[in-house]
Design brief:
- The structure is a single chain.
- Helices cover 24% and strands 29% of the residues.
- The longest helix is centred in the middle third of the chain and has 21 residues, at 42-62.
- The chain is of the alpha+beta class.
- A 5-stranded antiparallel β-sheet has the order 2-3-1-5-4.
- Helix 1 packs across helix 2 (87-96).
- The chain has a domain at 34-113: Ribonuclease P, Pop5 subunit (Alpha-Beta Plaits, 2-Layer Sandwich).
- The protein starts with 23 loop residues before the first strand and ends in a 16-residue tail after the last strand.
- The radius of gyration is 22 Å and the shape is elongated.
Length: 129
């Protein structure tokens, strides 16, 4: 027991908010093509994205550093890593890409997160038994 003459000090709480804690952002994207039988290799996909950056932002945009971390040729789904400062440029160039080899196409941005682990699961695809 504490003596009666000692007062307890009130608890001190500090709120900590981290903004842009990660230097990178990760994007899970899917390329939808008019002809579903068309397949791209990882190199062709990266070159296609660079072409989109170049057409929208010029040579400076084409030099935007991003990485193709994972790519599935069957589903045309890719996992991209980009510096946080370049996320808006990459996203906007993907949005405006409308044709690949004279056929209509569109990039669908499935998930974006500053944490790679957040892209490993998707509650929309969760199947409970």
């Amino acid at each position: 027991m504490k003596p009666v003459d000692q007062k307890e000090e009130p608890a001190v709480y500090q709120r900590v908010v981290l903004k842009n804690a990660s230097p990178y952002n990760y994007m899970k994207v899917c390329l939808v093509l008019e002809d579903e039988s068309t397949r791209l290799t990882a190199v062709e996909l990266k070159q296609f994205i660079i072409t989109g950056l170049k057409s929208l932002y010029g040579e400076v945009g084409a030099a935007l550093p991003f990485d193709l971390l994972k790519y599935n040729e069957d589903t045309l789904t890719a996992l991209l890593r980009v510096y946080s400062k370049g996320l808006v440029k990459l996203w906007s160039s993907l949005t405006l890409l409308g044709s690949y080899q004279n056929q209509a196409c569109a990039f669908r941005v499935l998930q974006v997160s500053p944490f790679l682990l957040a892209l490993t699961g998707d509650s929309r695809e969760l199947q409970l038994d």
